[in-house]
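just leaving the lab so this will be short. what follows is a protein written twice so to speak, once as letters and once as structure tokens for the fold. can you read through it and tell me how you think this chain folds. anything you notice is useful, everything is just below:
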Amino acid sequence: MAYQADNTLITNREMLGALVARPFVAVFEFLIALAEANPTARQLQTLSETSDAALATRGLTRQGEIARIMGGSYM
């Protein structure tokens, strides 16, 4: 009798779970991409990457910049 190693790294149950979850993952990734394409989100990301020291050298505050970017929707 010959020995055949079963060296698969994924089971059928895992493959089925991944197959069922894939449409939900795709929709979620699409929604994330849609949100990141928003100009307001891009400006907020840029602000997030800017240090407080860099804002202070330009005479700006983080709260003031958030209020400017968000406009009337900022509380």
